[in-house]
Amino acid sequence: MAGRGVRVVIDEKALRDWLSTSSGAQLGLQRTALAVEAAVKEAAPVGKSLSWPWRNPIRHGWFRDSLHTRPFRGGYRVFSRDPFAHIVEFGSVNSPTYAPFRRVILAFRGKALPNKAATPRSTAE
Amino acid sequence: MIVVDTERLLSAWLRDQPEIVAIVDDRVYTDNPNRATFPFLKLTQIAGGPVFSRPLYLDEALIQLDAYGGPKVLARQLIDTTRSLLAERFAGDHPGVGVVTGVNFGDLTYLPDDGYAPPKPRFIAMTSIYTHP
């Protein structure tokens, strides 16, 4: 039936302002961010230090302990302070691709999912 | 029903493409080789799963493509060629293995691999592939 469509224009600035000032929205965002942080910690590999402190290594799980959440532009950001976090996420010649952040973002139905369609679904059976 | 091993399907298919062979010969891996010859292409399934549990039929695999140079320009050529081939030719029936019903792409990232000294040029692209037996 023609003429039943509804066009919605989202005022992103107003939405951002509301998210950053509404106590209910802030509580929801904070809870979600903490849940994401906990899930990334769960998905993170726990490495065993071989070198620090010298001859008596005790500082294991450096990457897992480096994960934090902080307010960011009206929302929250989950991040790592480990300078080698990119190796854990994307892999290297010496490390598998653990991808803890992307796996958790996918689990939360976030935008890490590739969403740019290259080919329509084929008709092949 | 056994879902498709997308990593295996994709690596074998890429090794058969003349455009890829022209750049990397048969060096398409699913793990970093011990003594690598550059350039090469690595693909890793980092996530994914069945779209529906019953029937266990349609599967989505999220694959990370790592294109290593050579020089940076060769790494870029390799990742561009790979994505172009996936977009144009990969969907369809692959006899004996399965059927590819869709390919989606994520963002492209330049992230040199600093596990090597000096760091090796590397482009990373994400792709999501839908398959069924």
Average predicted local confidence, pLDDT of chain A:
81
Find the CATH topology of chain B: STM4215-like
Low-confidence blocks of residues of chain A: 113-125
Q: Using the alpha-carbon principal axes, give the shape of chain B.
A: elongated
Number of strands of chain A: 3
Structural class of chain A: alpha+beta
The span between the termini of chain B is: 8 Å
Individual helix count of chain A:
5
Overall 3D geometry of chain A?
elongated
Helix content of chain B: 25-40%
Radius of gyration of chain A, whole Å: 20 Å
- Taken together, the total number of domains of chain B comes to 1
Spatial order of strands in the largest sheet of chain A: 1-2
Separation, N- and C-terminal Cα atoms of chain A? 33 Å
Helix content of chain A: 25-40%
Q: Low-confidence runs of chain B (pLDDT<50, min 5 residues)?
A: none
What's the story with the biggest beta sheet of chain B?
A: 6 strands, mixed
Which range does the strand content of chain A fall in? 5-15%
Secondary-structure element series of chain A: HHHEEHHE
Count of individual domains of chain A: 1
Protein topology:
The complex is a heterodimer of chains A (125) and B (133).
Chain A: H1 12-21, H2 23-43, H3 62-65, E1 67-72, E2 75-80, H4 85-90, H5 100-107, E3 116-117
Antiparallel strand pairs in A: 1-2
Helix pairs in contact in A: 2-5
Chain B: H1 6-15, H2 18-24, E1 28-29, E2 40-50, E3 59-68, H3 72-90, E4 92-94, E5 98-110, E6 122-132
Parallel strand pairs in B: 1-2
Antiparallel strand pairs in B: 2-3, 3-6, 4-5, 5-6
Helix pairs in contact in B: 2-3
Tell me about this structure.
The complex is a heterodimer of chains A (125) and B (133). By secondary structure, chain A is of the alpha+beta class. Chain A contains five helices and three strands. Chain A has helices at 12-21, 23-43, 62-65, 85-90, 100-107; strands at residues 67-72, 75-80, 116-117. In chain A, strands 1-2 form a two-stranded antiparallel ribbon. In chain A, α2 (23-43) crosses α5 (100-107). Chain A starts with 11 loop residues before the first helix and ends in an 8-residue tail after the last strand. With 133 residues, chain B is of the alpha+beta class. Chain B has a single domain, classed as STM4215-like (2-Layer Sandwich), CATH 3.30.2000.30. Chain B has three helices and six strands. In chain B, α2 (18-24) runs antiparallel to α3 (72-90). The radius of gyration of chain B is 15 Å and the shape is elongated. Classes of the chains: A alpha+beta (125), B alpha+beta (133). The A-B interface holds A 86-87, 90-97, 99, 102-103, 106, 112-122, 124-125 and B 32, 36, 44, 46-47, 62, 64, 66, 83, 86-87, 90-93, 99-107, 109, 111, 113-116, 120, 124, 126-128, 130. β3 of chain A pairs antiparallel with β5 (98-110) of chain B, so a sheet runs across the interface.
